């Protein structure tokens, strides 16, 4: 059975609460808003909020993307020159509508309310962490045995800090990354990948037909993009119509995939491991035992290695192997393309530990657990090991 059938049967089975970094003040340059949502992605909620309040999307700061099929609480910032008050939205007859109340967890929708002021905008990663409360269903005997065995490994050694599936929402087909087309200057291919992945489309290039076919399901900026193609804009200029935070997601998706592959290769080269199914037929490898844990716990893995070349020879070989496999070229590093700098370097911890892990409820068929992860770590990555390895 797939992972999400066990942990996301209902939105209230997966509760995420952001642990904020910024404390609300009585005065400040930015409103601090609390966003509570269920069964809607962070980006969709922000787009709806922007459309109804007329606050430009680029002016809305947020610390991270929260799961769609879940009940989540997170924080936003907008400059004080915009008026804000509590608002709620949900789909009514398939159209987003402002409403007085949303039954969070039971309905698709979200509410936003001001909670104070701060003096700077939120950016990605601007949070202490996330608290999770998760209900695991169909928790039969064989699964319980696996869960407790793997939980002991996590308590001793933590778990690999892979990027989770939320990072790959822009990847519609296996290994078909929009950024790879952009890096090669193929913006027509990038747009085709964005809308259809690797699926064959016999009317690609007939922009009027494309618009008629897709318009009911498109965001306004996506409609604007196709309208631009209809007016004769080049694919590159049409691509730039996408909001910058959307364009950056293409970079994050590809770099996150490569980083996951570096860590997977490293673990397989050094430790006893088990491979676990991931999305798009990809795999994640989890160590079962670690002989040099004091070293591994402090290890940081670079995103490209061109500025942060690791001393660890096994890690260097893993990075080289992956970059060679996917045809990564050095001239792509720090490249400015489509109004953004891509393939930048940085460091990410190889291992993460859940904090305050507790079993809240337990029956023969169900278990409820809670734990906190630091910013940038993914609960689904931990759960894949506990439930699937």
Detailed description of the structure:
There is one protein chain. With 389 residues, the protein is of the alpha+beta class. It folds into three domains: 22-125, Alpha-Beta Plaits (2-Layer Sandwich), CATH 3.30.70.3160; 140-167 and 250-351 and 375-388, no CATH class; 184-246, no CATH class. The protein has twelve helices and 18 strands. Strand 10 and strand 11 form a beta hairpin. The longest helix is centred in the middle third of the chain and has 27 residues, at 244-270. The radius of gyration is 22 Å and the shape is globular.
Helix content class = 25-40%
**Helix and strand sequence:** HEEHEEEEEEHEHHHHHHEEHEHEEEEEEH
- Count of runs of 4 or more consecutive helical residues: 12
Ends distance: 13 Å
Structural class: alpha+beta
What does the overall shape look like?
Answer: globular
Q: Would you identify the regions where 5 or more consecutive residues have pLDDT less than 50?
A: none
Cα gyration radius (Å): 22 Å
- Say how many strands there are: 18
Major beta-sheet overview: 10 strands, mixed
User: Strand portion, in percent?
Assistant: 25-35%
Overall pLDDT level: 93
Counting structural domains, the number is 3
Précis, in short:
Helices cover 33% and strands 26% of the residues. The chain has 389 residues and is of the alpha+beta class.
